[in-house]
Amino acid sequence: MAVDIKHPAGREVVMRLVESADVLIEGYRPGVMERLGLGPGACHTRNVRLVYGRMTGWGQDGPMASMAGHDINYLGLAGALGAIGTRDRPLPPLNLVADYGGGALYLAFGVLAALVERQVSGRGQVVDAAMVDGVASLMAPIYQLRAAGFWSDDRAANLLDGGAPFYRAYETSDGGWMAVGALEPQFYAELIEGLGLADAELPAQLDAAGWPELAERFAQVFASRSREEWTDVFAGSDACVTPVLGMAEAPDFEHNRSRGTFVGGSPPQPGPAPRFDRTPASDPSAPPEPGSSTGELLVELGYSTERIATLRDLGVIP
Predict the structure, then answer these.
(1) Is 44 known to be catalytic?
(2) Mean pLDDT of 187-212
(3) If you write DSSP's letter for every residue of the chain in order, what string do you get?
């Protein structure tokens, strides 16, 4: 449905929806919905059970609440961007961490949690999902490591940021890359065996002073074969060594094909996740055009044909 909520009649349409809705989600800057008369207070007057989800970058309050921002900004203030990248510069991990991870997924989790709580209290509530908060929450284990003295503020110098030679990517002879994540000692032993270094004199795995030498040895060995060859070497192994696939390659990789991780034809797209055994999700389809079901949905709300025509004449709906 498409509705002009700046028009009083459009706002009333939204309020009619609110009366029977479980969840309302909005992503405006703080105060916008209140100025439109559609804030939580007004909506809860119509439906006390409504869960009101609010998505912003900086949150509903604080000195930066009204400022614009993007994923890289929220990462920067939460301490995540400073921990990701090369020694020379921070590198944004696409917009996966703040936008989708700390933002959308935290909002979804918060809304579902509020729906569960509503079964006890009978009341809805406001879910304030700020991307900067979500990123900070995702960083909690790293902050814990730092507090315990196991994490340095230097990038590419730690266990999980590419500093450890057994947790990074290595280039192969054909210009491909292999991802290595052999953290546990038993997995590390399989890595060493697969690389043919079992009998070599190497620094101890967790001796950070020996990491540069170890990384150089690993790089030399990985550079001696192609990505496909190394994929075959470590197939079925617990060494935690896998090929780094491009987006064009990932849908055709055997494991992804067998699980149906990607669906559709050309181009394929990621399938629904997670998976449910009793109520599996259908494959994604093309989204409807905005407003294409407006009339149908208004009829469901009880609007008469005449009233719908009037709303169209007023420009409230398409």
Answers:
(1) no
(2) 96
(3) ----TTSHHHHHHHHHHHHH-SEEEE-SPTTHHHHTT-SHHHHHHH-TT-EEEEEESS-SSSTTTTS---HHHHHHHHTSGGGSB-SS-B---TTIIIIIIIIIIHHHHHHHHHHHHHHHHS---EEEEEHHHHHHHHTHHHHHHHHTT---SSTT-STTTT-STTEEEEE-TTS-EEEEE--SHHHHHHHHHHTT-TTS----TT-GGGHHHHHHHHHHHHTTS-HHHHHHHTTT-SS-EEE---TTTGGGSHHHHHHT-EESSSS-EEPPSS--SSSPPPPP-PPPPTTTTHHHHHHHTT--HHHHHHHHHHTS--
For 186-199, how does the pLDDT look when each residue is reduced to its tens digit (9 = 90+)? 999 999 999 999 99
pLDDT-derived band at 234 (thresholds 50, 70, 90) equals very high
Question: Residue 79 — left, alpha, or beta (φ > 0 → left; ψ -120 to 50 → alpha)?
Answer: left
Is residue 59 predicted with pLDDT exceeding 90? yes
| Percent of residues, the chain, with pLDDT higher than 70 | 100
Question: Which residue out of 70, 153, 174, 252 is catalytically annotated?
Answer: 70
| Owner of token pair 């703080």 | 30
Single-letter code of the amino acid located at 55:
M
Task: Specify the fold of 167-244.
Answer: formyl-coa transferase, domain 3 (3.30.1540)
What's the whole-model pTM score? 0.93
Is 70 part of the annotated catalytic residue set?
yes
Domain segments of the chain: what residues?
A: 167-244
**Set 7, 61, 88, 99: catalytic member:** 99
